Amino acid sequence: MSKRVLIVEDEKNIVDILSFNLGRDGYETLEAYDGASGLKLAMEQDPDLILLDLMLPKMNGFDVCRSLRQAGRSTPVIMLTAREEETDKVLGLELGADDYITKPFSMRELLARVKANIRRNEMSSAAAPAAPGAGERISLGRIAIDPELMVAYKDGKTLELTQREYELLKYLGSQPGKVFSREALMEHVWNYEGYVGDVRAVDVAVRRLREKVEDDPAQPQFIITRRGLGYLFNL
User: What is the DSSP letter of 227?
Assistant: First the structure.
């Protein structure tokens, strides 16, 4: 069955271009031209991914994304923005968006991101039952990870992580002490093969992960930055 992408965008020419190219790639599309209608369609139709403009009539993209996440919906969201301000992009990611792309964008890049986010969501939602022994906890000092339950713990207490935060922690913890570049994390945690581009999404995810994992996020003990290189898990 074809995957469905909800396009929430008030510029009809952009909707038409997106709908045409997504359709040519085998996706079904739903369209909404304001935030309120987009949120309603998202809740009723449960699409596989949402392309969400920030500046919308009736309800902006930030509020749509916030409402979806507060309702417990984990549908992948890619924000479309004409703005260059980093604060807008960071706010969108902090509200639960999975990614953003700045207009004007390459259709090839957008389609690659749509495919990657749908694939990642499918892999996480339909994870196969663990093989014998695969469910054993990974011990990382005060941090422990249970791959079967997809849960992480600190000092024996469950950490309230999002799916992306859990995946990031697990990947960094898979090889303690090894530095992973932002590009490598985008490729392996975000599933963007051969990723080249804006990697600030990694920094936002690391900051949010530190807020939940570290005793003092300003002086991290577990998730360490190697300036100019990337991040590592310190055991």
Answer: T
d(CA 65, CA 105): 21
Q: Which residues contact 76 (CB under 8 A, 6 or more apart)?
A: 48, 49, 50, 98, 99, 117, 118, 120, 121
225 pLDDT higher than 60: yes
Which phi and psi (to 5°) does residue 118 adopt?
A: -65, -45
Contact at 8 Å (CB) between 73 and 42? Answer: yes
As a dihedral over the C-alpha atoms of residue 198, residue 200, residue 205, residue 211, rounded to 10 degrees, the angle is: 180
* Per-residue pLDDT at 123 exceeds 70: no
Residue 99: pLDDT band with limits 50, 70, 90: confident
In single-letter form, the type of residue at position 185 comes to L
Please name the residue ranges forming H helices in 175-234.
Answer: 182-188, 200-213
Beta bridge partners of 5: 29, 49
